[in-house]
Amino acid sequence: MGAIDGSAYLGRLRERQPEIWINGQRITGNICEHQAFKGILTSKAALYDLQLAPEFRELMTYVSPLSGRRVGTSYLEPRSKEDLEKRRKAAQEWAKASGGLMGRSPDYMNTGIMALGTAWDIFDGNESWGSAIKSLYERGRENDLSFSHTFVTPQVNRSLGYFENNGEEPLAAKVIKTTSDGLIIKGARLLATQGGLTDELVVLPVMGNFIEDSSVYAFSIPSSTKNLKFICRESFSYSSSHYNHPLGSRFEEMDTIVVFDSVEVPWERVFLHKDMEVLFNMYNDSSFYSFLLHQTVARQAVKTEFILGIAQLLVDTIQIDSYQHVKEKVSEIIVGYEIMKSLLLASEMEAAPDSRGRMIPSSNSLYAAISTYPKLHARLMEILQLLGASGLITIPAEEDFDSEVGPDLNHYLKGTDCDAKTKIGLFRLAWDISTSAFGGRQTVYERFFFGDPVRISTGIYNGYERQEAKDLVFRLLND
């Protein structure tokens, strides 16, 4: 099959019919036409179309070593710095289609599957596990599968000493039984973004202070697997109007709770079960995080550039560039963009091959970026609010311009060099990214995108090599 187009992606989703619940109702019929999902599914389909467009085909696909067909670049195993550059440029072309707002574009988990699948020997203590993850990678690559994933447990008790009572009905999803056919999983996982909107769901092990055998597993199953439920939060796609909700109407990804109601997972889909050694090694030894961060920071750099564009257009539209404080604020965005871009490029410049011959981007600069961005993104949203001020509140809807009060709006709300509808369209865009429910979710999402920011900072402190820095000081003192 190879790389697919948008119609193939939507067609597969319609055929699967996963069990998705929203507003107390199970979705029936064509999910592609449902108000809560139509926007994001149309946007994802456009990404698949983009990769096959003649002008992007060479960048966004490559020839499979297995089938000889062209497959998606997000599955490319990088063997050189040029391969890393190609992966980054392909990821950024997809990111540009959403202004970097789609945190779970297909290339995110495709990258994770590539990292694990090309390091299948980590799981080789049990031959079937190594075969399972390698098969998953090849199946995903050759059929251009899309994946959602989950590895967050329910927030019932987050205290350090909490340990779930095994005598109770499971809360966090765990193995309650093994059979000759596979694992039986019961319980819940949180925050599967685009849960049910992909071909498969990847379930990864949760790391923590207290890990029991029943929680040590990893597998991928079809989103339509029996007894697998996706329960959605409220949708932030309040309108199909791209004018009224320019971002929420197109890029609302939806987050779901995943309920495993005694779900059977066939052994051939399991690539980890009970093996603590594999659990503690799989992420680091596969460079799972380094590869995911490379894709993430590539997207966040595009998103920062998008925010810079919005800010400058606000400034131009109401001519406030003569104020020094305005220039200072826009300069903050410029500096943030250059920092993210530089850290991304540094990760490629300092990349080095691992024992398998894969070119691994430097994790130091990528962790610096992912530690910087939660605070940076929140500040960028504040800057948009400060630049837009009351203009982010005085935003009549598209229907108002077509009504009897339209002439009033056209007269009183025009910009310096544009009509009122154009100006308000821009301010609605700034509002939707910085102030609306959709924008609020984006801020929280970026704040915790790669986990607890404090834990990330602690990991940087614990893992960063500082001997050369200390030697530099001692050398100066000794001189």
Written description of the protein model:
- The protein is α+β, with helices and mostly antiparallel strands and 479 residues long.
- The chain has three domains: 6-145, 4-hydroxybutyryl-coa dehydratase, domain 1; 149-278, Butyryl-CoA Dehydrogenase, subunit A, domain 2, CATH 2.40.110.10; 287-478, Butyryl-CoA Dehydrogenase, subunit A, domain 3.
- It contains 17 helices and 14 strands.
- The strands form four sheets. The protein has a six-stranded mixed sheet, with no helix packed on it. Strands 5-8-9-12 form a four-stranded mixed sheet.
- A hairpin with a 6-residue loop joins strand 3 and strand 4.
- Helix 1 (6-16) packs across helix 2 (35-52), helix 9 packs antiparallel against helix 10 and helix 9 (288-318) runs antiparallel to helix 14 (420-434).
- The longest helix has 31 residues, at 288-318.
- The model has no long low-confidence stretch (mean pLDDT 94).
